[in-house]
Amino acid sequence: MSEHVRVAIVGGGPAGLAAAAVLAGRVDGTVLVLERETAPGGIARHSAHSGYGIRDLHRVLSGPSYADRLAGRAAAAGAVLETEAMVTGWAGDRALEVTSPRGRRTVTADAIVLATGARERPRPARGIPGDRPAGVYTTGQLQQLVHLHHRAVGRRAVVVGAELVSWSAVLTLRAAGCRTVLLTTELARPELRLPLRPVRTRTRLAAIHGHGRVSTVELEDLRTGRREHVACDTVVLTGDWIPDHELARAAGLAIDPATLGPRVDAALRTSRHGVFAAGNLLHPVDTADVAALDGRHVAAAVLRHLAGAGRPGSAGVERPGSPGVELVAEPPLRWVAPQLIHPGGPPPARDRLLLWTTEHRRLPRVTATQDGRRLGSRRLPWPAAPGRVFRVPYALVRPADPTGGPVHLTLGD
Q1: Would you call 86 helix, strand, or coil by DSSP?
Q2: Distance CA 218, CA 215 (A)
């Protein structure tokens, strides 16, 4: 069985739902959102604490309320939200293989938006040695267990990580009646000032011990090499994000080796004509409201494509023979998104480049150079810190020569 829609959006999280809400009211044809879970909303759906919706909806909501609000907006605009629908592969350039309880079918579309999000690496992917007892979770696993399935966890928890998602894990543990006895991070300082002590910095989780259930964790001080055991019955592994990029890879899209997500231009176009990407698939990981703003941004590019403004070619082609200018993040910057810009063309979402740093700078200076020429240098009034996305004004690279070489971004004090 086959079906044709005007726009197919893979992923019913904030980015996908926000894109659907814009597109459904403005295109002639069906806007279909394919979500593999039983309800739309993404990670926010099982994050019961507040703090969602500040940037996009200009109000403070709990995660479930935020998810419901975005899904309601998309449905009210006329989008079709199909849940329990797994996209298992590609049947052509803009043709998706979909499997659901209703059967298998092929969905073709004039435009496809990949908004599959990101996930935390589980223990096997992190290579943590020791025993294999119960009681080890990622934040997402913990939140689903507590808020969706209303299951109990342990009594004493160690949270690995000290960033925003780590605090989310602490709040979830608290809701389950589990006390967080320690947060650990390999960084020299926490990503944010958590209202919780103790937070152990420059500390590595060396091993997990326990038979049947976690009993202790073994921690190593990275400065001295000293090890100690901390008693606990629950371990939550937070952060260490990776995009859900399997579908992008299966399509043969150009993948950025640093983010591991699809390589895109400022309009969020991928290397396949008519296929776009948005949200934390591109920059793992940012807040839900920023992902939603990405969804609104990509909708504008999809509308231009449907109106016939796009041209086939490499990622971000504005016109034949215009491949774009590459952005390169120099250490200690780890990655930049988008990876391509078109000087004189549309700017990125919110006029910001998104970067990730491995070192802390309290008042960072960012410099952009192209072919040995300084395009701009600016000291920013906000810090660059490991564990959070670092935002840089697009104006810094706007003077780039569209026929020149890559633009290099460097970070200084």
Answers
A1: strand
A2: 10
Q: What pTM did the predictor assign?
A: 0.92
Task: State yes or no: cis peptide before 14, omega within 30 of 0.
Answer: no
How many CB atoms neighbour CB 378 within 10 A? Answer: 14
Q: What is the pLDDT of residue 190?
A: 81
User: The dihedral of CA 9, 13, 18, 24: what is its sign?
Assistant: positive
Nearest to 299, CA basis, from 6, 8, 18, 14:
18
Pick the closest to residue 275 from 36, 31, 82, 7 (CA basis).
7
Cβ-Cβ contacts under 8 Å for 329 (sequence gap 6 or more): 258, 335, 336, 355, 356, 409
The residue to which tokens 């690496």 are assigned: 121
What does the block give as tokens for 396?
A: 């810094």
Per DSSP, the residues of 329-345 read EPTTEEEEESSEE-TTS
CA distance 117 to 198: 31
- Can you tell me whether residue 172 is helix, strand or coil? helix
Q: What is the pLDDT of residues 13-38, one digit of tens each?
A: 999 999 999 999 899 999 999 999 99
In this prediction, residue 318 has a pLDDT band, given cuts at 50, 70 and 90, of very low
Dihedral through CA 319, CA 315, CA 274, CA 354, nearest 10?
Answer: -120
